[in-house]
Design a protein that fits this description.
- This protein is an alpha+beta fold.
- Among the domains are: about 180 residues, no CATH class; about 35 residues, no CATH class.
- The chain is built from nine helices and eleven strands.
- The strands form four sheets. A four-stranded antiparallel β-sheet has the order 5-4-6-7. Strands 9-8-10 form a three-stranded antiparallel β-sheet, with no helix packed on it. It has a two-stranded antiparallel ribbon with strand order 1-2.
- A hairpin with a 2-residue loop joins strand 6 and strand 7.
Length: about 375
């Protein structure tokens, strides 16, 4: 557990540092005075001052900040944040999220580079009695979309099929260079199995009649009833796959946020720091490529989440910039500060509730 916590601290530390560095470097390029640059929150572990900025590492690895002159209050300094043009302030606010998205892409490229094989959207073969083959798909088909969702990587296929309850699907494939629309495609195959405890392996049967022993058989059911072609790795294929995979991760995050708003998921389905530490430990045990993929997902998630128009987030601050642009004058900083304070308090309360749920899941 200690190892998992240390891995999580390093992982989040890098993500937070890159985010805050985005704000910092664009502020410096915009000649905005930066008073403090901190990684973490709470008491300072150590600090040093260079030039006009105090740099510090803090005890709690749950955030960080880049405190600019006049960001939340008034100031007579000509290099204060609010005295700069709106375009400069906008660039500073979104820079952190953009850096997280760039970091996510870089990590995906590294993860893809160390992966032995690259998947594709092209069907290489079918499982025995696969429904998709019986209802329209063929070997060599490249799956372009399922129920209107563009398929960027093989992970999108699994995500779409496993997260919808539809019985049939509208599928667009590329076959012999031509796009073909297929309706009412079904995906399904099943088998029976038992676990051989001596060999620690699964023994599978297509049908119960194939087994004459005394073990109790279990039924496994899957929608992914085909296998896919493997793409040969090269510099260009790694870059191409990494870009598509990054876009796919971003889209999954966005879809999940929309589903959360629609009520498909509840608070009990969310994970906070405690739950993420547990997931990091499980992922690290699988392999470095999976851990890197998770880190990329978290970094992209942080980038997208920070751009949401919610108080206390970068996106919420951008909303006040838009209001200022429309009104022609700044919203009084004390009023904006109250809104962000309330938003931050609500976010902290939500984090406490989610962490409590995470702990209950671990001990149950």
């Amino acid at each position: 557990m200690i190892i998992n916590i240390l891995i999580a601290i390093v992982l989040f530390g890098v993500i937070i540092a890159v985010h805050e560095f985005g704000h910092f470097i664009v502020a410096k390029l915009s000649d905005i005075k930066v008073n403090k640059f901190a990684i973490g929150m709470g008491p300072k572990i150590f600090k040093f001052t260079k030039g006009e900025t105090e740099y510090s590492l803090r005890l709690l690895p749950i955030g960080g900040f880049c405190a600019m002159e006049g960001e939340d209050t008034g100031s007579e300094d000509n290099r204060a944040f609010f005295k700069k043009p709106i375009k400069n302030r906008f660039a500073v606010l979104v820079a952190g999220a953009i850096m997280n998205l760039i970091l996510g892409l870089i990590i995906v490229i590294i993860s893809t580079s160390v992966t032995e094989k690259l998947g594709s959207n092209v069907i290489s073969d079918f499982r025995e009695n696969a429904k998709s083959q019986q209802t329209g798909l063929q070997k060599g088909d490249e799956i372009i979309s399922i129920n209107g969702m563009r398929i960027l990587t093989e992970n999108d296929i699994a995500y779409k099929l496993q997260n919808t309850d539809d019985k049939t699907y509208d599928v667009v494939v590329k076959r012999n260079g031509e796009k073909i629309n297929l309706s009412d495609v079904e995906f399904y195959y099943s088998f029976y199995y038992y676990i051989d405890e001596e060999k620690n392996s699964y023994v599978t049967f297509k049908d119960k009649s194939e087994y004459n022993g005394d073990k109790e058989l279990s039924l496994a059911e899957y929608k992914i009833d085909f296998t896919i072609n493997i793409t040969e790795k090269s510099f260009l294929s790694v870059i191409n796959y990494s870009v598509r995979d990054s876009l796919s991760k971003g889209r999954m995050i966005w879809i999940s946020l929309i589903d959360l708003i629609r009520g498909k998921y509840g608070i009990s389905d969310l994970s906070g720091p405690v739950g993420i530490v547990s997931v990091i430990g499980e992922t690290a045990a699988i392999g470095m490529d999976q851990l890197l993929s998770l880190m990329a997902f978290i970094s992209i998630n942080v980038g997208i989440f920070n751009l949401l128009p919610l108080p206390a987030l970068d996106g919420g601050k951008v909303v006040f910039l838009l209001i200022e642009f429309i009104r022609g004058k700044r919203v009084p900083p004390e009023k904006e500060g109250i809104v962000h304070f309330i938003g931050l308090a609500l976010l902290m309360l939500l984090m406490v509730v989610i962490s409590f749920n995470d702990i209950q899941k671990l001990i149950s």
